Structures are given as C-alpha cells and as structure tokens.
Amino acid sequence: MAPHTGVYGFPESATQAQDLAQALGIPCHIAELHRFPDGESLVRLPQPMERAIVYRSLDQPNDKLVELTLAASVLRRQGATDLCLVAPYMAYMRQDIVFKPGEPVSQTVIGDWLGRCFDRFVCVEPHLHRTPTLDAVFVGRPSIALSGAGPIVARLRADSVAANTVIIGPDEESAPLVDAIAGPLGLTGIVGRKERRGDRDVTVALPADASLTGRPVVIVDDVISSGETIFSCGRAARALGAASLRVFGVHALFPEGVAHRFVTEGFGAPLSCDGVPHPSNALPLAPLLADAILGFWEE
C-alpha cells in the first residue's frame, strides 16, 4: 500500500475499521462526531491523507449518509485525491424500480449522491435484484460487490461440516450465495421460493422432493432483519425431515428478541459477518475487503 493512505472509521464501527487498517498495514483514524440538539451532525477528521479509505456500513442509513457526505467534503478540502468508500452494507438498493406510482427509484438517488462524493466503492452482498452490477449503481465509478460466502465457507470448514449437510437459501435471490458456499465444500445446495405479503409476513416453500431426511441443514441469507424468512425456511426444512438447523447471515440487522427466538426455536445462535456491528458477529470481513482494495490500486 502506497504511503499517505489511511483508513477513516466512525465510532460505531471503530473495531472493524481498525481491523481493515491492520490488514492493509496502514494507519486508522476514527472520526469525531457531535450531534447538536436540533439533530444536526458535526464531523471532525484528523490526519489528512492523499488516499482515504472511508469505512462505514449503511444500516440505519439516514444520519450516516449525511455524515459521510460531510466527511468526504473534509477529506477533499484537506487534499485527498482518491476517496474509496467501503460500505459492507449498502443501503437503499432494494428500490431499483418504481413499484407503485409516486415512489422514488431510491437506488439511483443514493448511487448518484454517493457517486458525487467518492471515487470508488467496495460493498458486500449489496442486495441487488434487477441491477446486474454495482457499477450500474455508481455510474462511472469503479465498484466491487463482494460475496459474503468466503467467511461462511471458512467457518464451516473449521467446524468440520458433515459431508451430508445441505445448504439452503430461502429464495432465488439467495442462489448465488448458496452456490458459492456449497460448491467449495462439496455440499448439496437448494433454494426455496418465498412469498412475501408484508415485512413480517413471509412464507418459504422448499422443493417437495428435497432430500433432507436425517441430514443437517445450514440456512444462509444475505440479510437477516425480522428473521421471519429464516424461521419459515426452517419450518419447511423440518417438515422435510432435517435433523438439525444452523443459520448464517452476511448482514445481521435483527434485534435481541429475534436472537433469543432463534435459540428457543432450536436454530442455535445465528452467526454473521462483521460488516454491520452486531452481537452475532463471528465472521471477519477485513481480509476479504483488504484484498479487494489492494486490487483496486494495483490495476
């Protein structure tokens, strides 16, 4: 990594920013945030760098987006010529078309907003649906969308996952993640079909001929928020004879009550990657992110 390059993090994800800096062998600086009584934010960033890697996941995104914009303006004014936003969780990607009259195409709005602030982007499982690549979101800006499969594969391999384990994703959108986990481990992977009637009203159906009797099942998904998709998928797997259930999520957004429910309903404690700080974090993303960033600047 060239000199005059540093990682800039924010207080809620200081540990993850420091881990990334350590993986890259460069300094890390944590922004100072102040919130005025009227809700406005003040951002202070020390130690100007020519190349700045700004680390922040955009869960609970609204205040964070404003603070990122302010941070980018400070770094530019201090002389940064190349700003890379590492946002393991990228917000507002699901609304990529107008579903009902009067709605915005939020993906385009946020892509244009952040594209005016940063020169390049690294995200993990950015929840793209009809958009083929992250480059189509941040038009004209080099962008990398990483799979969260690698850390999950590493954990399952370290746990000596049984050879008859089945990897299940709840819907067709999870198929690439299922394939990227099942393939390297030589396991069977299947995907279900999800019917969503509301944010917390979801039913997952698995293929009726899925061979699950007496076999351990690992359910994987890119985002776990309410948990209802995973619970429905688990019920379907049990109905087909699954012997045990484990859950892995790339991004964990669920509250403490949902975490407790996973345990009481026999799923065990779910494990997640650490892009979004969460008590379930067990799978570090820093090595994956560092490799992607190094690839950017080696091109």
Automatic annotation (TrEMBL):
CDD domains: PRTases_typeI (cd06223). Its EC number is 2.7.6.1. Residues 163-246 form the Phosphoribosyltransferase domain. It is an enzyme of class 2 (transferase). Keywords: Kinase, Nucleotide biosynthesis, Transferase. Residues 14-114 form the Ribose-phosphate pyrophosphokinase N-terminal domain. GO terms for molecular function: kinase activity; magnesium ion binding; ribose phosphate diphosphokinase activity. GO terms for cellular component: cytoplasm; ribose phosphate diphosphokinase complex. Pfam families: Pribosyltran, Pribosyltran_N. One of its GO terms (biological process) is purine nucleotide biosynthetic process. The keyword Transferase applies. InterPro entries: Pribosyltran_N, PRTase-like, PRTase_dom, Rib-P_diPkinase. Belongs to the ribose-phosphate pyrophosphokinase family. NCBIfam families: ribP_PPkin. This is Ribose-phosphate diphosphokinase.
